[in-house]
Amino acid sequence: MDKVRLGIIGSGFISNLHVNSLQRLPEAEVVAVASPTPGKARAFADEHGIPDAYESYEAILKRDDIDAITVGVPNDLHEEVVVAAAQAGKHVLCDKPLARSLPEGERMMAAVHAAGVKLVYGEMLCFAPKYVRAKKLIQEGALGKVFLVKQNEEHDGPHSPWFWDVNRSGGGALLDMGCHSIEFARWILDRPQVRSVQATMGRFMHPEKTRAEDHSIVVIEFENDVIAIAENSWAKTGGLDDRCEIYGTLGNTRADLVQGVGLRTHSKVGYGYAVEKAGSTVGWSFTGFEEEWTHGFPQEMQHFVNVVLGREEPMETGEDGLEVLRIIYAAYQSAGEGRRIEWPYTPPDVEKPVDLWLNA
């Protein structure tokens, strides 16, 4: 095999990023897209020059000429799609979070292992060029012994209505965006064992839209005496904020994926995709430049293609996605019960992670 032929499952925001990134790669060919909304897959295909469009993802999985899929569907559908893809022998990139709950994620991984296919967990921050350079600074010894990692990913609300429904999403800002911050910390520190998790959260801006939290702060203590702080929000106005800080005994570094590269812009009407979000770029904003590259999506897709071609092993695995979910469970339980959660940790049996906060 010298080229990977791919199907795209989903036609929303994240699938646009997947397709735009894959179409940069000479070893990748996107041949089909599936979306259940009548007409949406065809419109998506026409926009991106994709030959075939379906209203059922099963139609893609039945095709022998498709090697792999990317999954960009609501959280409550991840298990269904990934299990079906594995059983059809397709390699999978599943966008974050891995699943709506730990049991769903565990069933997904069982299906992948049974089928012998590859699954890459879709965490693009580990491919973002600035963050990759920050990790190299640590490896080069420029910062000494790292003792604190902070990562923030925040904005004023998700881009699709299903995120607000906890039965579909499984949680709020912590599950949606905290998964980025938590895995960033694990990755940049070479995935040390967790010692404890403590969190606080609240519903401040969107009580009429969701039962979930719209702002969360999580403190993770690792066994190598490093603290990670993950702050995530659906309640921060002014557009996307995505940045990190790393403190060591010999120095520190910080990286900003949005404001550090954006064009300082003022507009009375707003622009781009954000216009659909109630004009969130009205006034002053940081206009993104090469946003997909800056956030690591083409690099992530190149890695996925390399995995399918047998050139690399997954850098972000389903097991990483499961560990992120476990930490998220602990954070919800910590915020609900007002106490530190120690490791080793077995999460309580709940339908969805946010229940550990909502039901406390």
- The CATH superfamily of the largest domain turns out to be Dihydrodipicolinate Reductase, domain 2
Q: What amount of the residues lies in strands?
A: 15-25%
Whole-number radius of gyration? 20 Å
Total number of beta strands: 15
Shape: globular
The overall pLDDT average reads 95
The strands making up the biggest β-sheet line up spatially as 12-11-7-10-9-8-15
Give the low-pLDDT segments: 274-278
Q: Helices and strands: which structural class?
A: alpha/beta
Largest sheet: 7 strands, mixed
Indicate the CATH architecture of the largest domain. Answer: 2-Layer Sandwich
CATH topology of the largest domain: Dihydrodipicolinate Reductase, domain 2
By oligomeric state, this entry counts as single chain
General description of the model:
The protein is of the alpha/beta class. The protein folds into 2 domains: 4-124 and 298-316, Rossmann fold, CATH 3.40.50; 126-296, 2-Layer Sandwich (Dihydrodipicolinate Reductase, domain 2), CATH 3.30.360. Helix content is 33%, strand content 24%. It contains 12 helices and 15 strands. The strands form 3 sheets. It has a 7-stranded mixed beta sheet. It has a 6-stranded parallel beta sheet with strand order 3-2-1-4-5-6, sandwiched between helices. A two-stranded antiparallel ribbon has the order 13-14. Helix 1 (13-22) packs across helix 10 (297-308) and helix 5 runs antiparallel to helix 11 (318-337). It is globular, with a radius of gyration of 20 Å.
